[in-house]
Amino acid sequence: MITNTELEYKGDLFPSKIVSFEQDVDSIYFNTDNNVILKITIFRDSLIRFRYTTKGYFSNDFSYAIDKTQSHGYNQLEVIEENAFYLIKTSKVFCKVNKKDMKISIHDIDGFTILEDEIGFHWEESYEYGGNIVKMSKQSKDGESFYGLGDKPTHLNLKGKRVENWATDQYAFHKDQEPLYKVVPFYIGLHHNKAYGVFFDNTFRTFFDFCHERRNVTSFWAEGGEMNYYFIYGPKMSDVVETYTHLTGKPELPPMWTLGYHQCKWSYYPESKVKEVTSKFRELKIPCDAIYLDIDYMEGFRCFTWSKEYFPEPKRMVAELAKDGFKTVVIIDPGIKIDKDYWVYQEALKNDYFCKRADGPYMKGKVWPGECNFPDYTNPAVREWWAGLFKELISEIGVKGVWNDMNEPAVMDVPGKTFPYDVRHDYDGNPCSHRKAHNVYGTQMARATYEGVKRFSYPKRPFIITRSAYSGAQRYTSSWTGDNVASWEHLWIANIQMQRMSMSGMGFTGSDIGGFAEQPSGELYARWIQLGVFHPFCRTHSSGDHGEQEPWSFGKEVIDITRKFVELRYQLLPYLYTMFWQYVNEGTPMLKPLVYFDQDDFHTHYRTDEFLFGKQILVCPILEPNAQGRRMYLPKGNWYNYWTNELVDGKRELWVNTSFDQIPIFIKEGAIIPKYPVQQYVGELQFDELTLDVYYKLGKEKSTVYEDAQDGYDYNKGRFSLRTFNATGKEKELIIQQHREGTFETSYSKFKINLMGLPFKVKKIELDNEKISLEQVQFNGGNFLIIDKDFAELHIIGS
């Protein structure tokens, strides 16, 4: 028998009419006669939070994603009551709240509609778990495009896609597979040349539909929790991404060695094999800064132990590797082996630090060590204990970085490959089930690891890498995209994933170069290296089940290509370090898809291959075998072909010839690109000269170079060097002005200036208002000159 009450509560429920509202400083509360409350909070004139409850009161307001150290503020807030709606105005947007049904519309100050509800907020009661399934649908505008959502292995433009957010161990995933390891419920919408963002801060399993089910409707929903989202107005994509990154937090600067090339495999053991690999890098003169130890370095896969057979003296080995310029990075997983004689297990058991099932037993699952229990990293006491476990690894043995894997969390041989829903978590004093904590488990593990490594690395900077992450994880850790495959499809996927991660606030990311599963051809590996050196995190990693994957595994031609491109990365380290400084300080993504660079050009909206590396280098990888070149799109502006120095006009598609040892790389006209000499590892050389590649432009262009001690925290005390170069090109003159901030003194004293594309023959040079001879700057009629690094103004004058 079905009663009327049961019928009444089946299906979707909706807010009814608004019966009252009140304002409390920056927040406005709207109440309906069926107990729904909408709280609208103004963070900035362009950043508004929408939070709904259906029970007449709000639960404790807590988020792991929001960076509470960041400040916000608005210039204007006005609330006006009209007959049919309430109007909330800031200096950037105004928001209408319909009195009849609580539907929302958001407009720019000219009245143009940016985003508006379709059905709007609605919900469905969850009889199985309690609480609600919360839903939101928005109207999609004509020609609207969508970007973001983290490392989704699908087209950069998400129009027509449906995606799922549930951190999942997806070994050998494929194109368009859902879900993957990371959860970043943030997207960017773009229509009529105006961009906005939506961050749905809900840690339950979430879904986004970008006009997949209904062609003019975008929707997002969660299997529990609140409808709680942030609206960010641009109108530029850069405004949206920078505001989102500010909201969820930015990392501290990494040590420069982490931006070098890294080598990894599952697994390098014993010690003699590790030494063989590192020695080969030095013998072949392929630069490399870090060597990784996977799970086989442990005693029976027990975290915080060393295999006595494979690594009998880890402290000595790590010190010897360091002497040869290699930092050692080790893996740590969340599964703690159930073993009464294992000290880590004993401590966790004694202090009740493991996750429990609903009825009291500890969560038990099989991972690499066998049967394991799992720490509850959402408990502050557990994070503090976990941080303390790194003392021996970091401060005594000398390990420089830690790599967190399997932290989705991944569990073998069970349906769903993770914890059951009934596992309980502390959630920083907000007790919940695994349904809510699952997507943040990996981030909180990485956070605890970061706190430990930072504590015991001090005064040096920590380095953490994680596989699983939720929005805000970038405050603690870098990441990689998990167990990819040695295939051309995955080379395309890796390119997309890095661009998307950069736009999603998690810039310090890379893929397993060459593919983790299966075996690449030499051609595929070379093409992947050529792309990977332009990703913020650059590491070859592979499964030991599928053969050798070191650069020398593919013959001399691939060795030479690898060396050539890794050397280019090391030359560009000051440029890359400056990119990172801009990301840390401004929230600027390090990689920029073409649509980010020029959203007004419709041709960029569906481009996937080309991207900006920093602000002035355009990269287009070769993604198919047997290629002698490729078609690509050059965005607005004029660009120098890096290999030929030919100047090419942009905003068009063109064919670019390339050989096997090249990919299309273009430099923005007017750019000044800093370069270090080639080193085998960061800090190997003391050098007296910084190279500046200057690309002539008729007009003006600004470039920056950020430098500091490359590690440590003195940069927070002003010990950094920030050089701003303003280049002005005229028909017969090039003027370069330099402005410098900070107190750090670089080791070099001179600039070697390489002049590219000058349309005139150099006749004379003026340096800081003084005429100097060409011999004084070692100008030999070629294209370079050498001057003191502290110049203020340089004039290069033609005849």
TrEMBL record:
Transmembrane segments: none annotated. The keyword Transferase does not apply. Residues 689-757 form the DUF5110 domain. Keywords: Glycosidase, Hydrolase. Pfam families: DUF5110 (PF17137), Gal_mutarotas_2 (PF13802), Glyco_hydro_31_2nd (PF01055), Glyco_hydro_31_3rd (PF21365). The keyword Iron does not apply. Residues 587-673 form the Glycosyl hydrolase family 31 C-terminal domain. One of its GO terms (biological process) is carbohydrate metabolic process. Residues 251-579 form the Glycoside hydrolase family 31 TIM barrel domain. InterPro entries: DUF5110, Gal_mutarotase_sf_dom, GH, Glyco_hydro_31_AS, Glyco_hydro_31_C, Glyco_hydro_31_N_dom, Glyco_hydro_31_TIM, Glyco_hydro_b. Residues 38-209 form the Glycoside hydrolase family 31 N-terminal domain. One of its GO terms (molecular function) is carbohydrate binding. Belongs to the glycosyl hydrolase 31 family. This is Alpha-glucosidase. It comes from Flavobacterium dankookense.
